[in-house]
Design a protein that fits this description.
With about 80 residues, the protein is α+β, with helices and mostly antiparallel strands. It has helices at about 10-15, 30-35, 40-45; strands at about 1-5, 20, 55, 60, 75. The protein has a domain at about 35-80.
Amino acid sequence: MIQIRFFARLREMLEVESEQMELAGVATIADVVEQLQQRGGVWQQAFGGGNTVMMALNQEMASAESAVADGDEVAFFPPVTGG
């Protein structure tokens, strides 16, 4: 099981801060994203359609190809800009 966390605009849009996901069929962060998109509705809007979403694995920046393992934490957040 992995822990998934959502931050900023994503948390507001999805109306959830965190959840747990079974690893069945999940090997990478891209697999996590695919399962989230398959929920449709706001999930598809948040993770599909060319939206840019940043990812972290165990509190370190990661890519979609990063492998996930039991007990990992995957976090999603929108790109951050400075000013």
